[in-house]
Amino acid sequence: MILTGYLEPDPKILAHWLAEPATAPRRRMSAEGASWHSMTHQLLLPELSGGAIEAALTMIDAVTGEPASPRRLEWWANVLQTGAAYRLHHHSGTWAFVHHLTDGAALRFPKENKVFPAKSGQLLVFPSTSRHCTDAVTEPHRVSIAGNIWY
């Protein structure tokens, strides 16, 4: 099950992640090409998620019929530049989410045979075990906020 929603991206949040200095703490994940992934935040600085955490929890509430009460939550920003792509991977946790701050390369779920071209504002919530990948970025950058939620 892949849940879809919309959350208007905050231009200040996008500008923050695009302006992140090269010296800021970051790490590379399963991406190929020019890209970076912010350090994982565990409920630190939730305002820099641009509301994605709260929106994802609300979507989960609607499906489960129960108020979201996560045991653990972590999130990060992804900035992929032209040519970069994420290889097929899955996440830990119960649910995973991604909020696209820009249009860009598609997010693919091969087992589910689903493809979601990244659209600014698009919010996807899915079981963390769902394997997914992105197409190579053809735009100057593809920026998203992503995370894992444990119940």
Folded structure, characterized:
By secondary structure, the chain is mainly β. The chain has one domain (3-150): Jelly Rolls, CATH 2.60.120.10. Helix content is 15%, strand content 39%. It is built from two helices and twelve strands, in the order E-H-E-E-E-H-E-E-E-E-E-E-E-E. It has helices at residues 11-19, 52-64; strands spanning 3-6, 26-27, 31-32, 35-38, 72-81, 85-86, 95-100, 104-109, 114-118, 122-127, 133-134, 141-150. Strands 1-10-7-12-5-4-2 form a seven-stranded antiparallel beta sheet, covered by helices on one side. A three-stranded antiparallel beta sheet has the order 9-8-11, with no helix packed on it. Strand 8 and strand 9 form a beta hairpin. It is globular and about 40 Å long. The two termini are 17 Å apart.
Quick structural overview:
Helices cover about 15% and strands about 40% of the residues. The chain is mainly beta. The chain has a single domain (about 5-150), classed as Jelly Rolls.
Strand numbers in spatial order across the main sheet: 1-10-7-12-5-4-2
- Strand residue content: 35-45%
The level of helicity is: 10-25%
Please give the radius of gyration in angstroms. Answer: 14 Å
CATH class: Mainly Beta
Q: How many separate domains make up the residues?
A: 1
Under the CATH scheme, which architecture would be assigned?
Sandwich
